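Saturday, quiet lab. Running sequence design on the structure tokens for the scaffold JK sent over.
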């Protein structure tokens, strides 16, 4: 007689559910049959310094995403040099002559082909950059517009000046905004599933020498792409 244990019960219940519903790993695989449309992953660097550690880390993230499937297309958007006024989220109008670059980003994020959005930010005093906060505050436009980002896959990457410089706390802070948009928020996946990608820019030689951090960046890109491919068209 087979001994019933919690492990066996869970395993057998899952197996029974798979048989009953006809769901197989093949039918829900990353490249399920008859699904050949392009899937786009957009990464947004919220660092005020263009082309530096945050952007470099996001490129590694996107490179890993692209390896998941030929269907994956990627784009890196850097907010450095752009004017993003967070006050507009509260309805405060621009002063005469002021410029705001957020409206130009709206179609890039709401495009139906965009199934995944990865936010990258440097860590300042244990939290996201002011540019990142202003950018996410402006997402009020998506919240009001029937949650235009709902069901897109979201991931977060944070770059700190020290190994344990508040990266995970920063990631969680950004994730709150993604949850409010009803996005599907994922971490960096197995084998060491965490909140997201945590990188160290202060290491000698720069962020690319942070082997652990770059691994989390690549894992995050892989996880976002893998999940995005599983979404219905």
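Result came back. Writing it out in full:
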């Amino acid at each position: 007689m087979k001994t019933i244990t919690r492990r066996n019960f869970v395993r057998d219940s899952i197996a029974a559910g798979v048989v009953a519903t006809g769901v197989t790993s093949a039918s829900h695989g990353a490249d399920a049959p008859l699904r050949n449309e392009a899937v786009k992953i957009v990464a947004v660097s919220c660092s005020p310094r263009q082309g530096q550690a945050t952007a470099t880390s996001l490129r590694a993230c996107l490179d890993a995403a692209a390896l998941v499937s030929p269907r994956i297309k990627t784009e890196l958007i850097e907010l450095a040099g752009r004017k993003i006024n967070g006050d507009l989220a509260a309805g405060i109008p621009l002063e005469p002559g002021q410029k705001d670059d957020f409206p130009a980003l709206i179609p890039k994020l709401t495009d139906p082909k965009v199934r995944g959005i990865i936010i990258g930010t440097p860590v300042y005093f244990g939290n996201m950059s002011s540019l990142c906060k202003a950018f996410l505050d402006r997402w009020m436009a998506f919240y009001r517009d029937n949650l235009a980002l709902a069901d897109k896959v979201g991931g977060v990457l944070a770059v700190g000046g020290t190994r344990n410089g508040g990266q995970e706390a920063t990631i969680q802070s950004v994730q709150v905004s993604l949850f409010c948009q009803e996005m599907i928020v994922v971490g960096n996946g197995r084998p060491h599933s965490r909140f997201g990608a945590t990188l160290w820019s202060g290491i000698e030689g720069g962020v690319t020498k942070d082997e652990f951090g770059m691994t989390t960046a690549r894992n995050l890109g892989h996880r976002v792409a893998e999940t995005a491919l599983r979404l219905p068209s």
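Notes for JK: The domain at 39-229 is CATH 3.40.50.360 (Rossmann fold). The first strand starts at residue 39 and ends at 45. Ask whether to fix the surface positions before the next round.
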